[in-house]
Amino acid sequence: MKKTIHVPVLIIFLLLCFRFSSQAQIPLNDTIECMHAIGLATSGGAPLDGAVVTIFQGNEVIEWSEITSNPKHDHHFSYNLFGNSYYTIQVSKPGYVTRSIGINTKVPDDFVINDDNPKTKFAFEVEVFKMKPGADDEFLDFPIALVKLNETKRVFEFDTEYTKKLKLKTGQ
User: Fold this and answer.
1) Residue 68 pLDDT
2) Of the candidates 164, 93, 170, 165, the residue with the CA atom closest to the CA atom of residue 135
3) Range of the domain at 106
4) Which pLDDT score is estimated for 3?
5) Residue 92 lies in a domain
6) Residue at 123 is within a domain
C-alpha cells in the first residue's frame, strides 16, 4: 500500500518549518519591550512648558513630541524600549541648552519579560537651563546620564561611573 502526502499538509508543514527557522534567527531579546522610560523635562525645578523631546534609536529619530501643560500628558513623556538597542532621549527648547540621556538596552540572551521579571519602569528627570551668551562648554554635547542593565539585580539603572567621570570633567 502506497502512502501519499497531501499537498495542503505538505505546504502547511513547510510554512511552519520556515516560520520557526526564521524566528530562531532573531534573538528574543531584540523583539521584547524591556523598559518603559518615563521622563519629565524641568528647568529651575519646575516642569518646562514647550520643550521638544526627541527619541533616537541609534542615529535615527523614531519619535518626537512637544511637551506642554496639556492635561493629556502633564509634562511627562514616555517610551517603550526594545532590548539590545541604544537610545538617546533629547530634550530641547529654543534659548535653552539641549540635554540628552543615553539608554543602553543590551540584555543577556536569557532575559525574559514575564510575571516574575516584568518590564522595568525607569523614571527620570531632565533638567535644562537657559543658554548663556558666549558660553562654550564642550561637555554639554555629552549625555548627562547613561542608563544600562545591572545584570546582578536584573534592573535598569544609571551608570554611576559615567556620571562621576562627567562631573569631574565639568567641575560639578
Assistant:
1) 77
2) 170
3) 7-170
4) 52
5) yes
6) yes
C-alpha cell at 29: 531579546
**CATH number where 150 lies:** 2.60.40.10
**Total number of domains constituting the chain:** 1
Alpha-carbon distance 153 to 115, whole Å? 16
Q: What is the pTM of this model?
A: 0.75
Beta strands in the chain (DSSP E): 33-43, 46-47, 51-57, 60-67, 76-82, 86-92, 99-104, 120-127, 145-150, 155-158
- Mean pLDDT of all residues in 8-15: 51
Residue 138, all three cell numbers: 564642550
Tell me: the pLDDT tens digits for 43-90? 998 888 899 999 999 999 999 988 876 666 567 899 999 989 999 999
**Amino acid identity, position 95:** G
Report whether 101 contacts 143 (CB < 8 A). yes
The answer as to whether 2 is a domain residue is no
